Every structure is written in C-alpha cells, then in structure tokens.
C-alpha cells in the first residue's frame, strides 16, 4: 500500500512516523522531515504494517495523525485522528472518495478547556490543541473538536470516522482547508457539544484501539 501526503496548508509542515509494536515499518524507514508547501511525499508500507504519520507545524506527539494498517490486497484501512490533538486539517481519499478526515480549520474556534494549547508556532500563534477528551472512550467531543466528530476521530471510539477495510492500495491524504471535505463532517459551526453533537453509533475498529493502547 502507498500513502501519498500532499501539503495544501500554505506553509511547510513537519512529518514524523510511528509503527505499532511487533509489525513491519514503513519501507525505507523514513525519518522526521519537512513537507514543503504544495509538495507531495509518498510512503510505501508492506503487508502486516500498522502505524501512523504525525503532521503539524511543529514536531509533537499530539499532532493530527494519519493512521492505517495493511494486511494484503482488500485488507487495508486508513483514518484521520485528532484523538491526541489537532494541528492541521487532513482528509484521506481512495478511488475518488474521501474515506476519513475533516478539512475544517479548528484553530479558528479557539482552544479552551478541557482542551489546551501545548505548542506554539514560530509566528507566536497556537500550533497545536491537545484533546482533553482523549481519556473518554465514548466522548462526547469537546466543543473545539465537535465539528469534525464522525469524520475524523475526535475521541477514542468515534468509529464513524472509519469506513473499515478498503480494497484500494493507493491512498491520498491532503492537508488543508481546500482539500475535499468528508461527507460526514459538520456543515455548520457547533456552539455546544452536548446540545449539538451527533448521536454516533460506534463501530468496532481494532486498529484505532491498538494505536491508542485500548
């Protein structure tokens, strides 16, 4: 399987890589790197792989993540996760359809409790909002993350953000608000999580729970 990551965010971004214990890593063992504006980097993974790509303005463990697994043709899986935190908007597609992610710039909403800013950019602006609900398996998401609930993972069992196994082996992930939106993301701003968050029917998603130690 290949994962192509394209930066349409308008500024250089930092990529780093993680692999689940006991499984093969990315081909070529890529190291933390800078993805320039409007550039694309493609990463290949072997059968048996399960891991993640962290994406953000600074290199931090709570950045937005592209997560996936691959166990041979017809047994791939991909999702976008903001469970640890949000840094940049990401959507991932295959076969002309958005599979997971949310292209909304959540930083415009302001990062407040229970979430918190945990990194600042060189421009003096918040670069990362860490997710205060990461320990609440069933949510609900905080008001900051609510517009992306069900499109990207916003709490550990936000399983509507994952479509399950896919047959495609070429994945394209796009960073930025100009990327194609997920049909599951909210079309309007939400001011109250408890009053407005959707009622999600979580699906079982083994990979995501493995990645987050659940």
Descriptive overview:
- The strands form three sheets. This protein has a five-stranded mixed beta sheet, with no helix packed on it. A five-stranded antiparallel beta sheet has the order 3-2-5-6-7.
- The chain has two helices and 13 strands, in the order E-E-E-E-E-E-E-E-E-E-E-E-E-H-H.
- The protein is mainly beta.
- The chain has helices at residues 193-196, 206-211, and strands at 2-7, 13-19, 33-35, 40-44, 49-56, 64-70, 76-81, 85-86, 90-94, 97-102, 116-120, 126-130, 170-175.
- Residues 188-207 have low confidence and may be disordered.
First-to-last CA distance: 25 Å
| Number of discrete helical segments | 2
Proportion of helical residues: under 10%
Which runs of at least 5 residues are low in confidence (pLDDT < 50)? 188-207
Rg on CA atoms, Å: 16 Å
Shape from CA axes?
Answer: globular
Largest sheet: 5 strands, mixed
Overall structural class, as computed from helix and strand content, comes to: mainly beta
Oligomer: single chain
Which percent band covers the strand fraction? 25-35%
Mean pLDDT: 89
What's the total number of strands? 13
Q: In what order do the strands lie side by side in the largest sheet?
A: 4-1-13-9-10
- What is the string of SSEs from the N terminus onward? EEEEEEEEEEEEEHH
Any descriptors?
2 helices
Helix and strand arrangement:
Layout: E1 2-7, E2 13-19, E3 33-35, E4 40-44, E5 49-56, E6 64-70, E7 76-81, E8 85-86, E9 90-94, E10 97-102, E11 116-120, E12 126-130, E13 170-175, H1 193-196, H2 206-211
Parallel strand pairs: 1-13
Antiparallel strand pairs: 1-4, 2-3, 2-5, 5-6, 6-7, 8-12, 9-10, 9-13, 11-12
